[in-house]
Specification:
transferase; arginine biosynthesis; Aminotrans_3; 7-stranded mixed beta sheet; single chain; globular; aminotransferase; binds pyridoxal-5'-phosphate; 2 domains; alpha/beta; 11 helices; Aspartate Aminotransferase, domain 2; N2-acetyl-L-ornithine:2-oxoglutarate 5-aminotransferase activity
Length: 394
């Protein structure tokens, strides 16, 4: 169908979208309504960890759809238990609660921390978060986020989220008081422009939160599930947080998220937390397939190798074009352009012929790369060739 034949005008406006409609995809490639192909280094915003329409994901959806779609969150189901078991087996956490989005998982973490504060810290409720952080689009998670302008769009904010500076431990220490219940951070700020918390900072934060008996919450919605080259990014610093949230990559494209906690932090009582679709077998069956594939022998080693390969290619390009280098972990990386040409590059890359390239400029002066974790080095080479073509045309 032609673009103007779709009832696009019936959709509520939320952002500027290009005038194409995506129809199907496979692996690193996406196809639109005109038959054009795109090499996808956005992957639904670091969501499709195994690329478009992964066979294991299709299989899990197909099998589970024929068995049981939703018995209600008030009952146990098989995939929910199996996925929880897999996650506790492969992490430092003991308990899992499933949700439908990263924001919802973070809401759960905020509630868990506030309940824990009520129980063990005389009603402490403040959660220290960070400038330029992103934790979701609900009112509480927007308030927790340090995105410029988000404090006023839907004012008044949810109170209790003082902001510190990433990689500056004294800025955190200054904010700790009797009302502090937790510190929450992304081990790699994704939307903020792929800014990793240093290993030293993560270790200092762990020591500081232990010293003051406050919880350390890691929002691994973007950095988790293999993206950083380890199953979870907190592993890179050799520390164990108290609480973690997952989203995006855990479902490789389907709405699935999770809140994980150490046994000592499990404070919910009957009725405190829930949700109609939480832990539904259709999505948790997909999550089980995804985590099984990510933890299969050699897979994460491959992510690290391809991450190193992408890093080397980006550094070479940076040198060649006089850019400012690159940063990131695993297959979440940014090319630092040194000038505000990011959006222009994204636009031109999509319009390339015959095949387009999908990129993201998390900030105007950088490009963010978040390909499928099973992207091939050949596809990375193709992306680099296309990117050079775009840069030549500027
Ligand atoms: C995307 C993201 C979220 C929000 O996830 P949704 O599924 O969009 O609600 C939260 N935290 C981080 C770090 C993210 O990248």
């Amino acid at each position: 169908m032609k673009f103007n034949e779709y009832p696009i005008e019936s959709l509520m406006y939320i952002t500027n979208r290009p005038e194409i409609v995506f129809t199907h995809g496979k692996g690193s490639w996406l196809h639109d309504n005109t038959g054009k192909r795109y090499l996808d280094f956005v992957q639904g915003w670091a969501v499709n960890s195994l690329g478009h329409c992964n066979e294991g994901v299709i299989d899990a959806l197909d099998k589970q759809a024929r068995l049981l779609i939703n018995p209600s969150p008030a009952f146990y189901n098989e995939p929910m238990a199996q996925l929880a078991g897999l996650l506790t087996q492969h992490s430092c956490f003991d308990k899992v609660f499933f949700a439908n989005s990263g924001a919802e998982a973070n809401e759960g973490a905020i509630k868990l921390a506030r309940k824990w504060g009520k129980k063990f810290k005389h009603g402490a409720y403040e959660i220290i978060t960070f400038d330029h952080s992103f934790h979701g689009r609900t009112l509480a998670t927007m308030s927790a986020s340090g995105k410029p302008g988000w404090d006023t769009i839907y004012a008044p904010q949810v109170p209790g989220f003082p902001k510190a500076d990433l990689n500056d431990i004294t800025s955190v220490e200054k904010l700790i008081n009797a009302k502090t219940v937790a510190v929450m951070l992304e081990p790699i700020q994704g939307e903020g422009g792929v800014i990793p918390a240093t290993r030293e900072f993560m270790q200092q934060l762990r020591a500081l939160t232990k010293k003051h008996n406050v919880l350390m919450i890691v929002d691994e919605v973007q950095s988790g599930c293999g993206r950083a080259g380890t199953l979870f990014a907190y592993e890179l610093a050799g520390i164990e947080p108290d609480v973690m949230t997952l989203g995006k990559g855990i479902g490789s494209g389907v709405p699935l998220a999770a809140l994980l906690a150490k046994a000592e932090c499990e404070v919910f009582e009957a009725g405190d937390q829930g949700g109609t679709y939480n832990g539904n077998p259709l999505m948790t069956a997909v999550g089980y397939s995804v985590i099984s594939q990510l933890t299969a022998p050699g897979f994460l080693e491959g992510v690290r190798q391809r991450g190193e390969y992408l890093r080397a290619q980006l550094l070479e390009l940076s040198k060649e074009r006089g850019f400012e280098g690159e940063r990131g972990e695993g297959l979440l990386r940014a090319l630092l352009l040194g000038k505000d040409i990011g959006n222009q590059i994204v636009e031109k890359a999509r319009l390339l012929q015959p095949d387009g390239l999908l990129l993201n400029a998390a900030r105007p002066n950088l490009l963010r790369f978040m390909p499928a974790l099973n992207v091939t080095t050949d596809e990375i080479d193709q992306m680099m060739t296309m990117l050079r073509t775009v840069l030549d045309s500027l």
